Amino acid sequence: MTAIDIDIKRLPKHIAIIMDGNGRWAKLRKQPRIFGHREGAKSVRKVVEASARLGINNLTLYAFSTENWNRPKHEVKTLMKLLVSALKRELPLMKKNNIRLNAIGHTDMMPENVQHELQEVLDETKTNTGLILTLALSYGARQEIQRAIQEISYKVKNNIISVENVDEDIINKHLYTQNLPDVDLLIRTSGEVRISNFLLWQIAYAELYFTKELWPDFDEISLHNAITDYQLRERRFGKTSEQIAE
Description:
Blueprint: E1 14-18, H1 22-28, H2 33-54, E2 58-65, H3 73-96, E3 100-104, H4 112-125, E4 132-139, H5 141-157, H6 168-173, E5 185-188, E6 207-210, H7 220-231, H8 241-245
Parallel strand pairs: 1-2, 1-5, 2-4, 3-4, 5-6
Helix pairs in contact: 1-2, 2-3, 3-4
């Protein structure tokens, strides 16, 4: 499968990926989990570069969930170190490929050195006009929606917004993803078939693609396969096939 098989005119505007299977990948090779996380970082680079080459506008990666804080402390500490080193290492690549980094989630929960490095890369790439690469860090969709409801409720209570005007647009403007389009294609690796509290509002009409590949095995060809599968589907958004054809 090559990029030639992909209809460039019908690319998904926003791809989101649940990167799952690093630990299992390492276990199959009788290696510690961190070995899988390091290999998974290589897959991130491959997929980001492939997305930029194709002309994908938005790529969102589920890098660290709110639930991930419950993992063993040494693993969390190691993941934070990997994140800092990855941000430093990939900054030149992002500049070269005109990629703008974005971050969503409870990022103020991250260690100070992670916040500092993240902010540096955000600042260094903010004027780039190509692919918007969004990292979901300390992110949980239910927490995001709860936060949005609290902010909207405060504004209604203080007569900033009338309750009659609370619609989808208002809700969108209070989500972390307020500047991003809805997800067109959601990919999950490792054979798990669940959403895991990721972008619950934003994937309302997304096409879901599940693959048994573990994340460290996911590469450019894997991404092309997912996009090709996406393009074979009929997206009706509640309409009939006949209406779509008109």
